Target: Pyruvate, phosphate dikinase
Amino acid sequence: QESDILGFTRIRRVAPIAVNTHGGRAKCLQRLIRLDLPVPETVALSFDAVHRLAEGQSFDKKSLLRVFGEAPLLSVRPSSEDPDWGGPGAILNIGMNDARHAELTQTHGPDAADQLYLRFVQSYAVHVERLDPELFEFDTDMPVGEALKAALDAHEDETGEGFPQDPAHQLGQVLRSMARAWEGTTARLLRQAKGAPADAGLGLIVQAMSLGLGPGESGAGVIQLVDPGTGAPQVKGRYKRQAQGREALSAPTGAAADEVMYLTRDARGTSLEEAQPKIFETLVEMSRLCRTRLREEMQVEFTIAGGKLAILDAVRVPRSSRAALRIAVQLAEDGIIPREEAILRVPARSLTELLHQQVDPSGKREVIAKGIAASPGGAMGRIVFNSTVAQSYEARGEPCILVRRETTPEDIRGMHSSVGILTERGGVTSHAAVIARGMGVPCVVGASIRINIREKTLELADGRKLEEGEVLTLDGSAGEALLGAAKMLPPVKDHWYLQLMDWADGIRDIGVRANADTPMDAAMARDFKAQGIGLCRTEHMFFEGDRLTVMREMIFAAKQEDRMEAIARLLPMQRSDFIELFRIMEGLPVCIRLFDPPLHEFLPSTREGAKELAEALDLPLSDVTRRIEWLSEFNPMLGMRGVRLGITFPEIYAMQARAIFEATIEASKHGDPVVPEIMIPLVSAQREVELVKTQIDAVAAAVRNETGANFTYRLGVMVETPRAALRAGDIAQNAAFLSFGTNDLTQMAYGLSRDDAGRFMNAYVQQGVFPEDPFHMLDFEGVGELLKIGAERGRAARPDLTVAVCGEHGGNPESIAFCRAAGFDYVSCSPFRVPVARLAAAQLVV
Ligand code: PEP
Ligand code: MG
Model:
């Protein structure tokens, strides 16, 4: 006894159809019907109904069939909540049987009738009855009539029965098999991988067929109004005569001459536009209506049956990131969606992709190594294994990719000379990753390679070896290295991008600054419309050119006066750095962090380097190696760096403060007065701040005295140790601002080395120990708690305190949301991530 089941609804203008009960396709079809488009009769089965079908509940198929009138042909298509979650393939021509075949032979001709029957037998046998597909495949040159007969015979051979003739039975079987396919394990795992919940439902759509086969102009196709790659307005699509469903999309070009393959005018052959201008015009108008009323660029699926147009379906035009941005802005410019919605429609992260050259995803790619995607974009060049060779490549104008086990400050020049960086070790905040992101150079770290520096080879996981000079492509967005030169896409910074960013800036309420160390970075920061520099890592200025030598002289100075002499020579260099930064950033705040790294980083790490240095300084090699040993630490990350160095060798910070103040006076002569911000790194105790503040105030007083010029400055503290966050109340008494350095804070909160964590991070994330790499995504629960405590305690002690983040997390949309909720004033990130941060911040307001 068949019991009726609830839940099939004829789609009408007013019918209770919703995305979360009947799926996206059902809802979209209802919208098309409301636009009065010629949509054939359509019935939607709810998630609930489909679920019951899968469980074997029977229902009254005859009453469902009756909706479609006398002897209809039907299609069934899936309708999941999110189209990305997939679903079983469509089944067409349900209702074909011997009687229908005989009728259609009269009305549509034997060829069309044979085709329709054959196709149905094929898909029913394979997808519903699960018979071997090979039995139902025939050569394309076999006459259709013969193929049909062979298919019916094969069916009989396999099942021992004739092909089912009852349309109600056919429909019932199709619906049930599609419902079951959705509940199968493979399908469930596949959609869960795409983010679908475990209990995601499937709706089904039953629709009357409009036959694209038969007399007169008959065929099927798709049409859209934009180019999917660029988003530029352009009528695009496919059309095929004597075809059904989405067949036109997969049909090989150059098929039979009487089957028009082009939708729009095309030099290669006839087109629907020329052959049927009226139908074409109507289609374009209908597509325009869809765009305006569905407020989205749609791809419309249509059939022409004997000259009569039917609209079967419409889906969001699949698009590249670049096209997505242009489409959103264009829709807002045309008044179809509000600006706020355009802002929301562009995923903030997709901007990084647009602002870098990219490896073309449609090109050929031979992946030879996988690692961590440390800095986005694509780069192609020849492999080099050290900085000297990189510089010589650059001098010759030949792009190269620097391949290192890991990078150290000594590699800076080589990194600047390379178009991409690949390392064997390291994680997202390793030296290579941070510097590369700052420079906007694609970088992959922790890659599955083995480097042999002496042999100058790079060994791949499969044992193959690459030598210096071989061509490699880096995909820093995917974290992959590809063999040879891959196809590239250029960066985009067009009207649509600028417009969107302008709208975003108009509504966001948290500041975005850039981390920038050099004039080049600063120029980039301005270009990306950062509201100032949030972190200038001054130590990066000491690795440049002849400064390294002077720096080393300072380190080697045995007597106080020798040290002072070297420092006096560093002063004008630092001063000119700052003058340049202040000029470039004119009118905007510049936050300069006093010297941070341990001194041994300025000394060579190899014996050869030590020998060169001994020659340069005219010292015995033993002196040099002894000094290197003396300075080297067991755990430099927790050793004499940051303010510890500043307190042990106060003359270094004094020199930097003087350089900053003198540059302030100089830069203020030519433009707006500069108010520099000076930041003390790696603080853990209030007394450290007091000592440094006293010293810097004294330098300021001295400079004012000497020059007669007046200036102000703001002194702040970088919160990078858990203790500084906990003691933020005391610390804020001597600080105008607190800027959280979440790289070190994460490292110290977890006790996780930022340079070594890459080795086990994958295992940790895969096994769910960490939901994500905490150097990548701020750990809200632990490190985030320290941020909140620090901000609260700091503000309680000093209500006008500025609070910011300047670690790598500053450019991460989720972390920005966290900081905004915690009341932070601004975030600071590498220049290339500034646009992402600006857009992400705006999206939080909408
Ligand atoms: C930090 O620790 O978060 C930071 C910004 O400083 P650095 O990365 O230079 O240690
Ligand atoms: Mg730090």
Remarks:
- The first helix runs from residue 19 to 22.
- The chain has five domains: 8-208, 219-319, 357-489, 508-538+577-598+645-845, 599-632.
- The pocket of magnesium ion (ligand 2) is lined by residues 720, 741, 743-744 (CB under 6 Å).
- The mean pLDDT is 92.
